[in-house]
Amino acid sequence: MGVKTVFAAASSCALVGIGGAGYYLTHGAAAGQAADGANEAVTQVPQQPPRRQRRKMWNVLESTLEQSRAVAKTVKEADAPTKAPEDPAPKPGDTPLVHDALRLATAADAHLHLDLAQSFFQAATAAAEKLLADPAAPGAPRLEAGKAMALFWLHHGHPAKAEAAAEAAVAACRGRGGDEGLRADLEELLGHARRDQHDWQGAATHYERARHMFSAAQPTLGTAATNLRLAALAGEEGWLEYRRANLAAAQAGLTAAVAQLSAAGAAAPARALAAGRLGAVLHDQGRVDPAMRQYFAALQEELEPVVQGGAATEETYEVLQDMALGQRGLGSDEAALETVEGVLTMQKKQKAVEEAENTEVKDLALVRSLARSLTFGAELLRGSGHPDKALKWAKQARELLLEAAGKAEDPDALEVLNVIGSAEAALGHGPEAYKAWEEAQRVAHAVGERGETLAAVQFNMGNQLLQEKRYEQAVGLFEKSLALEQELGASTPADSAATHFAIATALKHTTRTQEALRHAETAASAGAAAGAELARYKQLLTQLQKQASVVEA
Asked: Which candidate, 501, 494, 498, 492, places its Cα nearest to that of 541?
């Protein structure tokens, strides 16, 4: 999420932006507050449009929030999964034993019997391996079993196991002809596995290979099936660009994928996945209304199975979490918190069922998703004046991530540590806040993470130093944050205005008056681009200009 906490006074705080690269989604910075050590609060307020336009905007806002509340109500009323999916139809090359084992595995997985599902997937794999004793036997059953096993591990947050399952299937069938489509599917799954292990280049390489393999398999697959697979792959490539913080490329890829999937007659889950991801990208670009429309389109498809008694997927939870971010972006923290609480209830029910039924397979995707809900909920609580409860939730999220990763050096921990630091600071626990933020920087260095969340951590540390009147140190951290955001191309005009304003405010209390003046001018320019009220910027500029004239005299 990448939360920048900007303090108006030692006892209160508000957000400049919420977002973040990597697993946690970035959602465009909005105008916020800043102050120096003398509690000189600076609030950026959007300029007021004409009354008729304001009324129209308000009606659209109310309509969007009402839709999101209806979705949240559906989530709140959802129960634990009770319904299994329909049996999959046999595929060419299937044998009854392999097909039956995969069918039973799918049904067990849908009922959250993960241990049982694993045993059936293993049975399908073993049966397919026996068939390969005949040199003339087709490789399709073994490839199909490997694909199903890899998908199972991916969906439950075990990308390394997914990679191993896919590679084993490919290796077992090496030298056997045919089955080009299945081999391309497995190549794409290898890309997913590398992506989920934060190996962006490795993922891109597998996706490029898969694209060539799908194109080469067109005579076998047929034009329609090939176009469908290529459209889905385009969506995955767009999502990879998002994970790499390349928003323009991500938007182009996912926009094209949504159109291509629709034209190719893709099934509802594939269209919903692409729509939800496109919403996340639009949201990061500060386009909340179109993002919410994409979320609604995705959830219309993804929640239907849940209402009918099926299990929610990680992707469903992620779109719901993003919708809550959208509700906040539309100015309704209350609605956002209601949505998050509904999602938490749903996730905790599912986690309780899974833990009661399984001892071998742990659903790490659910654990991470639950941590994400707690993290965003903690930030909502902190921002609404409940830092004590926020700290409790954030620490719970931290424990869940340690459980999922088995180690402290986990990229997802950055966001949680950032929120912990902000909550500690809001409670007046300066040393504890620094400890959390310093741990976040240590983790970022250990995992090679240089995303927007790290920039937010540096900004928040600078803000705390500003409150403590440690001006030179504050400037150093603000400048690091600004440089990183500029390097990533992730800084919006509102973010840029806030950071330059903070630097200027800190420098005002040093002898570097001319530097302060330049940053104040940049802040005012960025604030104007963001549609902010400029009175505060002008006030700071006037103060610095007077200060500069005194120095010159």
From this structure: 501
Residue 488 has pLDDT above 90, yes or no: no
Can you tell me the distance from the alpha carbon of 32 to that of 49, in angstroms, rounded to the nearest whole number?
Answer: 19
Residue in 525, 548, 498, 358 with CA at minimum distance from that of residue 44: 498
Query: Is residue 379 a contact partner of residue 172, using CB atoms and an 8 Å limit?
Result: no
Section 296-314 average pLDDT: 85
Q: What is the 3-state secondary structure (H, E, C) of 273-299?
A: HHHHHHHHHHHHCCCHHHHHHHHHHHH
Q: Which of 321, 256, 247 is nearest to 287 (CA)?
A: 247
Confidence band of 79 (pLDDT split at 50, 70, 90):
low
Specify the residue for token string 């991801």.
Answer: 277
Percent of the chain with pLDDT over 70: 81
**Phi–psi pair at 136, nearest 5 degrees:** -90, -5
Report long-range pairs for 206-214 (Cβ below 8 Å, ≥24 apart): 207/233, 207/236, 207/237, 207/240, 210/184, 210/185, 213/180, 213/183, 213/184, 213/187, 214/181, 214/184
Nearest-angstrom CA–CA distance, 357 and 114: 8
Contacts of 547 (CB under 8 A, 6+ apart): 508, 513, 516
The CA-atom distances, in angstroms, between 405 and each of 368, 399, 448, 501 are: 9, 10, 16, 38
Average pLDDT value over all residues in the chain: 83
pLDDT at 449: 79
Q: What is the mean pLDDT of residues 178-183?
A: 90
Amino acid letter, 510: T
The answer, yes or no, to whether residue 238 has pLDDT greater than 70, is yes
- The token duo for 417 is 């540590």
Whole-model pTM: value is 0.82
**Torsion-angle region of residue 544: left (phi > 0), alpha (psi -120 to 50) or beta?**
alpha
d(CA 309, CA 253): 33
Q: Which residue would you say has higher pLDDT here, 193 or 176?
A: 193
The closest of 538, 550, 539 to 513, measured between CA atoms, is 550
Question: What number of residues does the chain have?
Answer: 553
Residue in the structure block whose two tokens are 């069938």: 173
How do residues 106-118 score in pLDDT, each as one tens digit?
999 999 999 999 9
Do the Cβ atoms of 314 and 363 come closer than 8 Å? no
Cα separations in angstroms, 215 against 55, 58, 226, 229, 427: 51, 48, 7, 9, 58
Judged by DSSP in three states, 127 sits in: helix
The three-class DSSP label of residue 7 is: strand
Answer for the pair 235, 261: CB distance below 8 angstroms, yes or no.
yes
Neighbours of 54 (CB within 10 A): 11
Asked if 457 contacts 440 with a C-beta cutoff of 8 angstroms, the reply is yes
Tokens of 254: 């996912």
Mean pLDDT computed over 159-172: 97
